[in-house]
Amino acid sequence: MDITLTHAVLLLVTGFFAGIINTLAGGGSNLTLPALMVMGMPAEVANATNRVGVLMQSIVAVLGFKKHGKLDTDDTVPILIPTIVGGLLGAAGAAYAPSEWIKPLLLGTMLLMAFIILVKPSMVAPELGTPVKQVSQTPASWWWLGVAGFYGGFVQAGVGFVLLAALAGSLRYDLVRANALKMLCTLVFTSVALVLFIIEGLIQWLPGLILALSTMFGAHLAVKLAIKAKPDTLKWFLFIMTLVGCIAAMFS
C-alpha cells in the first residue's frame, strides 16, 4: 500500500511511544493499531501488521535487559512452553475470528488489570526481596501464561498486563525482571503469530517496517528507564497505562 509522509510520521511517533509503553508496562498497541487503521487497513490486517513492530521491539528489549543482567533464564523453558501453545492458538483464532470480538476482549482485560492494581497492587508489583517461585511450584502460573499467550496471539494490545500478572503475580518476580521475561515471552509468541499471519497474507510490510524502526528506539530507551526507575515509579506507570488502556479501548 502507498505510504504518505503524514502516515510515516504518524507511525514513527506512535511506534516510539508504543515501544516505551510496551517495554515498561503494556498497552502500546492501543496507539499503533488505531494508527494503522487510520491508514485504511482492515482491523485484522492492522492487527497482523502491528506484530512486525512488536517483534522488533521485543528483540531490542530482551537484548537490553540481558545486557544489564535483568533477564532470569533459570525457568525460561517452563515459562515459554504454555506461552507458545497459547500464542499459537490465539493467532489461529485471530486469523479467523470476527474483528468485533477484539474490542470487548481488550476492554475487559484492561478493566480487570486496573481493578487488580488498585485493590491488590502486590499481585503485579511484589516487594523487593520476595522469593521467586518456579513454574513447577505454582501450577496456576501455567494457566496464566497460557492465557497470556493466547491473548497475545489473538489481539496483542494489553498482553503485557496479563504477562505481568503471571510473572509478578504468580511467580513473584520484581517488576524489572518480570518486564524482561515479559518481553521474552512476547518475542516468542509474536514470532509464532507472525508466521501464521504471513501464511495468511495479512502483513503490510512497508508500514510494518516503519513501525518496527520506531518501536526499536522506544524499547531501547525504555530498558534504560526500567533499570534506573524505582519500583514504586514502575508500579504507578503500570497503573496509569492500564487506565489509559481502558480509555483507549472504550473510545477506539
From TrEMBL:
It comes from the Bacteria. Coiled coil: none annotated. It is found in: Cell membrane. Its main location: membrane. The keyword Hydrolase does not apply. It is a multi-pass membrane protein. It holds the Pfam family TauE. Keywords: Cell membrane, Membrane, Transmembrane, Transmembrane helix, Transport. The chain crosses the membrane at residues 6-27, 77-97, 104-123, 143-168, 180-199, 205-227, 234-251. GO terms for cellular component: plasma membrane. Belongs to the 4-toluene sulfonate uptake permease (TSUP) (TC 2.A.102) family. This is Probable membrane transporter protein. It comes from Shewanella woodyi (strain ATCC 51908 / MS32).
